[in-house]
Amino acid sequence: METSDYDELRKTFSQSTDDDLLRLTEEHDQITDEAKDALRSEMQQRGLTIPPSCKPARPSRLSRLFFSAARHLIPGSLYPSEKWRPGFMEMDIGEVYWLGYAICGVIVFIGCWIYCIATYGFLLGVGFGWLPSAIVAAIVSLFWPLLLLGIIVLIYLLVK
């Protein structure tokens, strides 16, 4: 039975002194994520304090706020049930869809709001333009994969 790199790293770190582990945390940007995980695990096992720079990355507060708000606006059957996991490669297809929905929603909302300001003037556009912009963004963003596909086809036709 083969051992994984993670197990090898844990074995190596278990033979290291506390000072060596602390020195490695200072060089955290030069080691792989797998090594960081093994290092964190070994430090937790020994009861050492893990510096904030070596802790795993979390989504920003703004993105967590946006996704929690989106969860309440979108029917539960459509939203993925798993918790947010940082890192694009660890996301399932549902999380990727809703991330694209959020990005597209912000872009469409800003574009529609600018259109309302240009069409109805500053006072009405800024004051009331956010409402139709939010409605349009919520509906159009549901179809962001089709919009992305259309943009890719358009670029292909222009380059060809």
3D structure, described in words:
With 160 residues, this protein is mainly alpha-helical. It has two domains: 5-54, no CATH class; 61-159, no CATH class. Helices cover 68% and strands 0% of the residues. It is built from seven helices and no strands. The protein has helices spanning 5-14, 18-26, 33-46, 61-73, 93-128, 130-140, 144-159. It starts with a helix and ends with a helix.
* SSE ordering: HHHHHHH
**Contiguous helical run count:** 7
Mean pLDDT score, rounded?
76
Tell me the number of structural domains. Answer: 2
Low-confidence stretches: 83-88
The major sheet is characterized as: none
* Beginning-to-end CA distance, first to last residue: 52 Å
Overall shape: it is: elongated
- Number of β-strand runs: 0
> What proportion strand?
under 5%
The computed structural class is: mainly alpha
**Share of residues in helices:** 55-70%
Radius of gyration: 23 Å
